[in-house]
Specification:
Blueprint lengths: L3 E5 L4 H12 L3 E6 L2 H15 L5 E5 H7 L2 E4 L3 H10 L9 E4 L23 H8 L5 E4 L6 H4 L7 E7 L2 H12 L4 E5 L6 H18 L15
Parallel strand pairs: 1-2, 1-4, 2-3, 4-5, 5-6, 7-8
Antiparallel strand pairs: 6-7
Helix pairs in contact: 4-5
């Protein structure tokens, strides 16, 4: 039986883009949202775009968590803590969680090129604090622009995966490899997510200054996989 990947906040630009890429690669996707009907409508639109073979469905966030083995957080930082607290009682032991959250000031009305201070050090470390024990957590996909994900073009971007859990790191790396042009790079411990998250603000600034939507990161001198 194939795994199911739940994408919380999956009706937003980042979540929809990841759902599109992974569903095209053959993954079974459950789009999660506060509004189950909105999630279902987004799933329908993606099925129409990809074709009848696409395995995409919609549900509210709690239902997505209950039925999925892998859950990806794509909610704005301003709503991250509240959502995780709401879901505390529904997580299944052994679920792999991948956090794409970036604490951009834009989520609270500030500039998109500025970061918010997070007491735990990073959005991913805040997630770790709010998840029940026994969950595998990886941080990744923060530097991958939603506008580029929504296209059919290769992304031409390295994706840094940070985690203290080897299984979670492996799953996140496998999903990165399913996006054409992407390469997973082992970013080390979860605490390194604070560095990776901050790169997003830098990339947004580059996109603005160069009037593009596809600025990404490539590391040289690493083995090509």
């Amino acid at each position: 039986m194939s795994r199911k990947i739940g994408i919380l906040g999956g009706t937003g630009p980042e979540g929809t883009g990841l759902a599109y890429r992974w569903a095209r690669a053959g993954e079974h996707i459950v789009i999660g949202s506060r509004d189950a009907s909105r999630a279902a409508e987004t799933a329908k639109q993606l099925r129409e775009r990809i074709g009848s073979s696409a395995q995409i469905e919609g549900a509210d966030n709690a239902a997505a968590v209950i039925q999925c083995e892998v859950v990806v957080l794509t909610v704005p930082f301003s709503g991250q803590a509240a959502l995780l607290k709401q879901l505390k009682s529904v997580w299944k032991p052994g679920t792999i969680v991948i956090d794409t959250t970036v604490p951009l000031a834009a989520t609270v009305g500030g500039a998109a090129t500025r970061m918010l201070g997070v007491w735990q050090g990073s959005a991913a470390e805040q997630t770790k604090e709010l998840l029940p024990a026994g969950m595998g957590l990886a941080a990744g996909f923060q530097n991958l622009g939603a506008e580029l994900l929504a296209t059919d073009e290769p992304v031409e971007c390295d994706i840094l995966i940070c985690s203290d859990d080897e299984k979670a790191k492996q799953v996140a790396s496998e999903l990165a490899a399913k996006i054409p042009g992407a390469r997973a790079v082992n970013g080390g411990k979860l605490e390194n997510a604070r560095i990776v998250e901050s790169m997003t603000a830098l990339l947004i600034g580059l996109n603005i200054r160069y009037k593009v939507h596809s600025a990404g990161i490539r590391f040289t001198g690493l083995p090509v996989k």
